[in-house]
């Protein structure tokens, strides 16, 4: 599907963004290995999250979807052999987290994914899981399909090479099957939804800055999870309202967990006008309303500890920087190269087609902002975040922008274009 977008004067109104993707995946997986029923309200009905549901169903978990509520009848820690290949589709979270659960099972499973996922590095989970006692084989020891032979696991002390919540969560899930405690240390703190939610399910995980001590427990207990709105989806509207004059939007019920709010800090530092209101706590997660008004953004330097707090938002930050005054430097973001696409290359090449002054570097990009860009024919590379970021760039560009393969927004935000139209 190709989408055509023309210049808009402003965006105004109230936005409800869909449920958080990371939290939706986790609620289904943790509910599946818990005892009793888990009810997930506000579940994100997107392709990625359905990949998780389909895999858990194949492993014998009874899951019923009624509108935006999902009922999971937990199997307890041990699942059933699917006798079939599991397909994680485009979802890195499904593949990496599920591997942690499969490592502790009493059977062998083959786990694959789509063309993009089969190119993403898995050695980062294979290494710690093998150390714990699982037996995992992969193409070139790094790429899916993964064959995971579950085993009785042992606790390990492990320092991850990258700040990745998927790697951390994978080891945390495997630690549930270990006979003693596991300690995980990350170079920088990544999103901490697993820590918060596993403790809500009755797990015993202690967090110390970027270190976690995982104590094995006999069982997890099913519970009710209300999924807040996804700040990664809100980010597109935060930037749209910031760059378009006379805009004002209210984004309701957004997860404002500190490990995810780097986008708010960056836009504020660029001179953006953002207010966080009515903060409250929902299932251990902070939630709030976000008000964004137009502003004149200025270029800044982005790097270091903030990178894991905004890793998925760098494509839309590149758009904000393309319309900001002065230079923006994004560094320490090599991880972008191994996302759903190489997001340094894809964003640089497509924003250049629109006339942006943007250069790729080894670990990020350098952007000199302009007052306006031009509509162009651009490609999403089947990467949902690239498609949505280019759509926001198109709102302020002269002429028509045509985005090829825009249906990939279904990965995380199936209603993206209808929400954008309403605004
Ligand atoms: C996610 C973690 C991040 C993020 C991804 C979702 C998660 O990946 O990019 O979209 O749900 O844990 P990494 O852990 O690989 O950085």
From TrEMBL:
All residue ranges annotated as the Enolpyruvate transferase domain in the record: 6-420
EC assignment: 2.5.1.19
Annotated GO biological process: amino acid biosynthetic process; aromatic amino acid family biosynthetic process; chorismate biosynthetic process
InterPro entries: Enolpyruvate_Tfrase_dom, Enolpyruvate_Tfrase_sf, EPSP_synthase, EPSP_synthase_CS, RNA3'P_cycl/enolpyr_Trfase_a/b
This protein's pathway: Metabolic intermediate biosynthesis; chorismate biosynthesis; chorismate from D-erythrose 4-phosphate and phosphoenolpyruvate: step 6/7
Binding site for phosphoenolpyruvate: 21, 92, 120, 166, 343, 385
Localisation: Cytoplasm
Top-level EC class as recorded in UniProt: transferase
Binding residue positions for 3-phosphoshikimate: 21-22, 26, 164, 166, 312, 339
This protein's UniProt keywords: Amino-acid biosynthesis, Aromatic amino acid biosynthesis, Cytoplasm, Transferase
Function: Catalyzes the transfer of the enolpyruvyl moiety of phosphoenolpyruvate (PEP) to the 5-hydroxyl of shikimate-3-phosphate (S3P) to produce enolpyruvyl shikimate-3-phosphate and inorganic phosphate.
Assembly with partners or alone: Monomer.
Name under which the protein is recorded: 3-phosphoshikimate 1-carboxyvinyltransferase
Species of the source: Thermoanaerobacterium thermosaccharolyticum (strain ATCC 7956 / DSM 571 / NCIMB 9385 / NCA 3814 / NCTC 13789 / WDCM 00135 / 2032) (Clostridium thermosaccharolyticum)
Gene field: aroA
């Amino acid at each position: 599907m190709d989408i055509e977008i023309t210049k808009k004067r402003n965006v105004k109104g109230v936005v409800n963004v869909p449920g958080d993707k990371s939290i939706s995946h986790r609620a289904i997986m943790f509910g599946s290995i818990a005892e009793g029923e888990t009810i997930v309200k506000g579940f994100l009905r997107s392709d990625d999250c359905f990949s998780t549901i389909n895999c858990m169903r194949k492993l014998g978990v009874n899951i019923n979807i009624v509108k935006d509520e999902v009922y999971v009848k937990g199997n307890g820690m041990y699942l059933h052999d699917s006798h079939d290949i599991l397909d994680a589709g485009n979802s890195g979270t499904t593949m990496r987290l599920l591997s942690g659960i499969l490592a502790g099972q009493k059977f062998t499973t083959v786990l694959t994914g789509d063309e993009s996922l089969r190119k993403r590095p898995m050695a980062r989970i294979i290494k710690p899981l093998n150390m714990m006692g699982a037996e995992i084989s992969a193409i070139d020891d790094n790429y899916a399909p993964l064959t995971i032979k579950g085993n009785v696991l042992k606790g390990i002390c492990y320092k991850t090479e990258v700040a990745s919540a998927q790697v951390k969560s994978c080891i945390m899930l495997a630690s549930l099957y270990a006979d003693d405690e596991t300690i995980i240390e990350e170079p920088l703190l990544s999103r901490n939804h697993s820590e918060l939610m596993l403790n809500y399910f009755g797990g015993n995980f202690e967090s110390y800055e970027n270190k976690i001590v995982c104590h094995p427990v006999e069982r997890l207990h099913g519970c009710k999870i209300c999924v807040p709105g996804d700040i990664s989806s809100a980010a597109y509207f935060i930037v749209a309202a910031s760059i378009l004059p006379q805009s004002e939007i209210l984004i309701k019920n957004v997860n404002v967990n500190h490990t995810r709010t780097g986008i708010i800090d960056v836009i504020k530092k660029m001179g953006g006008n953002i207010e966080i209101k009515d903060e409250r706590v929902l299932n251990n997660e902070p939630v709030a309303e976000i008000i964004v008004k137009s502003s004149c953004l200025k270029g800044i330097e982005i790097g270091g500890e903030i990178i894991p707090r905004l890793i998925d938002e760098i494509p839309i930050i590149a758009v904000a920087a393309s319309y900001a005054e002065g230079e923006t430097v994004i560094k320490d973001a090599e991880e972008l190269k191994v996302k759903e696409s190489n997001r340094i290359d894809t964003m640089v090449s497509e924003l250049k087609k629109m006339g942006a002054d943007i250069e790729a570097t080894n670990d990020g990009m350098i952007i000199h902002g302009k007052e306006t860009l031009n509509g162009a024919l651009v490609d999403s590379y089947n990467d949902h975040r690239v498609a949505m970021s280019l759509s926001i760039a198109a709102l302020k560009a002269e002429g028509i922008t045509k985005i090829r393969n825009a249906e990939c927004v279904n990965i995380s935000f199936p209603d993206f274009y209808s929400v954008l139209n309403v605004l």
